[in-house]
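Exercise 7. Given the encoded structure of a 177-residue chain, write a plausible sequence.
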Protein backbone atom coordinates (compact mmCIF):
# COMPACT_ATOMS: atom_id res chain seq x y z
CA UNK A 1 0.00 0.00 0.00
CA UNK A 2 1.21 3.54 -0.70
CA UNK A 3 2.66 5.41 2.29
CA UNK A 4 0.79 8.62 1.50
CA UNK A 5 -1.78 9.97 -0.91
CA UNK A 6 -1.84 8.17 -4.24
CA UNK A 7 -2.45 10.65 -7.04
CA UNK A 8 -3.84 8.34 -9.71
CA UNK A 9 -3.10 8.72 -13.39
CA UNK A 10 -0.45 8.90 -16.07
CA UNK A 11 2.60 11.15 -15.84
CA UNK A 12 0.81 13.84 -17.84
CA UNK A 13 -2.26 13.61 -15.58
CA UNK A 14 -0.53 13.64 -12.22
CA UNK A 15 2.02 16.47 -12.45
CA UNK A 16 -0.58 19.30 -12.65
CA UNK A 17 -2.35 17.77 -9.63
CA UNK A 18 0.96 17.54 -7.74
CA UNK A 19 1.64 21.22 -8.48
CA UNK A 20 -1.74 22.17 -6.98
CA UNK A 21 -1.11 19.99 -3.89
CA UNK A 22 2.33 21.57 -3.35
CA UNK A 23 0.91 25.08 -3.76
CA UNK A 24 -1.28 24.41 -0.70
CA UNK A 25 1.95 24.50 1.34
CA UNK A 26 3.20 27.78 -0.15
CA UNK A 27 2.89 29.52 3.24
CA UNK A 28 5.69 27.24 4.52
CA UNK A 29 9.27 26.58 3.52
CA UNK A 30 8.88 23.59 1.18
CA UNK A 31 11.49 20.91 0.57
CA UNK A 32 10.73 18.18 -1.94
CA UNK A 33 12.45 14.79 -1.85
CA UNK A 34 11.96 12.42 -4.77
CA UNK A 35 12.64 8.69 -5.06
CA UNK A 36 12.65 7.20 -8.55
CA UNK A 37 13.97 8.18 -11.95
CA UNK A 38 10.76 8.98 -13.81
CA UNK A 39 9.27 11.04 -10.97
CA UNK A 40 12.59 12.88 -10.59
CA UNK A 41 12.67 13.60 -14.33
CA UNK A 42 9.11 14.94 -14.26
CA UNK A 43 9.77 17.14 -11.22
CA UNK A 44 13.06 18.50 -12.57
CA UNK A 45 11.42 19.42 -15.88
CA UNK A 46 8.61 21.32 -14.13
CA UNK A 47 9.66 24.90 -13.38
CA UNK A 48 7.43 25.19 -10.29
CA UNK A 49 8.32 21.87 -8.66
CA UNK A 50 12.03 21.91 -9.52
CA UNK A 51 12.77 24.95 -7.35
CA UNK A 52 11.76 23.03 -4.21
CA UNK A 53 13.78 19.85 -4.86
CA UNK A 54 16.31 19.10 -2.14
CA UNK A 55 17.00 15.39 -2.64
CA UNK A 56 16.56 12.96 -5.55
CA UNK A 57 17.33 9.27 -5.18
CA UNK A 58 17.60 7.37 -8.45
CA UNK A 59 19.10 4.18 -9.86
CA UNK A 60 19.12 5.15 -13.56
CA UNK A 61 16.73 2.33 -14.35
CA UNK A 62 13.06 2.16 -15.05
CA UNK A 63 11.32 -1.20 -15.13
CA UNK A 64 14.78 -2.80 -14.87
CA UNK A 65 16.02 -1.07 -18.07
CA UNK A 66 19.00 1.31 -17.98
CA UNK A 67 18.20 4.96 -18.66
CA UNK A 68 20.17 8.20 -18.49
CA UNK A 69 17.96 11.08 -17.50
CA UNK A 70 19.97 13.59 -15.56
CA UNK A 71 22.28 16.47 -16.16
CA UNK A 72 24.72 16.81 -13.26
CA UNK A 73 24.33 20.60 -13.41
CA UNK A 74 20.87 20.35 -11.82
CA UNK A 75 22.49 19.41 -8.49
CA UNK A 76 25.08 20.82 -6.11
CA UNK A 77 26.25 17.37 -5.04
CA UNK A 78 26.11 13.90 -6.58
CA UNK A 79 26.55 10.97 -4.23
CA UNK A 80 27.02 7.45 -5.58
CA UNK A 81 26.11 4.45 -3.44
CA UNK A 82 25.41 0.75 -3.70
CA UNK A 83 22.18 -0.67 -2.36
CA UNK A 84 21.38 -4.28 -3.40
CA UNK A 85 17.76 -4.95 -4.39
CA UNK A 86 15.43 -5.56 -1.45
CA UNK A 87 17.82 -4.03 1.10
CA UNK A 88 18.62 -0.82 2.90
CA UNK A 89 22.39 -0.65 3.31
CA UNK A 90 23.85 1.22 6.29
CA UNK A 91 26.06 3.29 3.99
CA UNK A 92 23.04 4.28 1.89
CA UNK A 93 21.20 5.30 5.06
CA UNK A 94 24.18 7.44 6.18
CA UNK A 95 24.39 9.13 2.77
CA UNK A 96 20.69 9.95 2.89
CA UNK A 97 21.06 11.42 6.38
CA UNK A 98 24.02 13.57 5.25
CA UNK A 99 22.14 14.75 2.17
CA UNK A 100 19.14 15.79 4.27
CA UNK A 101 21.34 17.74 6.67
CA UNK A 102 23.15 19.59 3.89
CA UNK A 103 21.95 22.84 2.40
CA UNK A 104 22.73 21.51 -1.09
CA UNK A 105 20.54 20.04 -3.81
CA UNK A 106 21.58 16.39 -3.75
CA UNK A 107 21.37 13.63 -6.28
CA UNK A 108 21.91 10.20 -4.77
CA UNK A 109 22.64 7.66 -7.51
CA UNK A 110 22.41 3.98 -6.71
CA UNK A 111 25.09 2.53 -8.99
CA UNK A 112 24.46 -1.11 -8.06
CA UNK A 113 21.07 -2.29 -6.83
CA UNK A 114 17.93 -0.23 -6.54
CA UNK A 115 16.47 2.78 -4.77
CA UNK A 116 12.92 1.59 -4.06
CA UNK A 117 13.24 0.89 -0.31
CA UNK A 118 15.33 4.02 0.33
CA UNK A 119 12.11 5.99 0.69
CA UNK A 120 11.91 4.49 4.22
CA UNK A 121 15.19 5.87 5.63
CA UNK A 122 14.53 9.11 3.77
CA UNK A 123 11.24 9.64 5.60
CA UNK A 124 12.71 8.36 8.85
CA UNK A 125 15.55 10.92 8.78
CA UNK A 126 13.55 13.97 7.69
CA UNK A 127 13.12 16.39 10.60
CA UNK A 128 9.81 17.74 11.82
CA UNK A 129 10.22 21.50 11.91
CA UNK A 130 8.04 24.55 12.42
CA UNK A 131 7.46 26.58 9.27
CA UNK A 132 9.04 23.77 7.18
CA UNK A 133 7.28 21.00 5.28
CA UNK A 134 9.03 18.00 3.81
CA UNK A 135 7.19 16.37 0.92
CA UNK A 136 8.33 12.99 -0.38
CA UNK A 137 7.23 11.74 -3.79
CA UNK A 138 7.70 8.39 -5.48
CA UNK A 139 6.16 6.60 -8.43
CA UNK A 140 3.56 3.93 -7.98
CA UNK A 141 3.45 1.33 -10.76
CA UNK A 142 0.11 -0.41 -11.28
CA UNK A 143 -0.27 -3.53 -9.14
CA UNK A 144 -2.97 -5.59 -10.76
CA UNK A 145 -2.18 -8.94 -9.16
CA UNK A 146 -2.60 -7.68 -5.56
CA UNK A 147 -5.62 -8.62 -3.44
CA UNK A 148 -6.65 -5.00 -3.75
CA UNK A 149 -5.33 -3.69 -7.10
CA UNK A 150 -3.43 -0.39 -6.92
CA UNK A 151 -3.52 1.91 -9.96
CA UNK A 152 -0.56 3.79 -11.48
CA UNK A 153 0.32 7.22 -10.14
CA UNK A 154 2.53 9.30 -7.87
CA UNK A 155 2.54 8.94 -4.11
CA UNK A 156 2.75 12.17 -2.10
CA UNK A 157 3.88 11.83 1.50
CA UNK A 158 3.55 14.81 3.81
CA UNK A 159 6.11 13.97 6.47
CA UNK A 160 4.54 14.22 9.92
CA UNK A 161 4.63 12.27 13.20
CA UNK A 162 2.03 9.76 12.01
CA UNK A 163 3.87 8.79 8.83
CA UNK A 164 7.20 8.63 10.66
CA UNK A 165 5.65 6.13 13.12
CA UNK A 166 4.31 4.05 10.24
CA UNK A 167 7.75 3.99 8.60
CA UNK A 168 9.36 2.96 11.91
CA UNK A 169 6.95 0.00 12.12
CA UNK A 170 7.94 -1.09 8.60
CA UNK A 171 11.63 -0.78 9.45
CA UNK A 172 11.21 -2.86 12.63
CA UNK A 173 9.43 -5.56 10.64
CA UNK A 174 12.31 -5.59 8.14
CA UNK A 175 14.84 -5.94 10.98
CA UNK A 176 13.07 -9.09 12.14
CA UNK A 177 12.92 -10.65 8.70
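Solution.
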Amino acid sequence: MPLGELIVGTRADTIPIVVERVKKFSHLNIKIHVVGDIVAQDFLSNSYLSKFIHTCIIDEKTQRKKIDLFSPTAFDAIIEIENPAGTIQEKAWCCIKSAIESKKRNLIKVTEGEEDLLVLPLISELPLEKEQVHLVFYGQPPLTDAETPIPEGIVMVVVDKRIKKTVQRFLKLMDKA
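Remark. The two ends are 19 Å apart (CA to CA). Students should compare their own answers with the one above.
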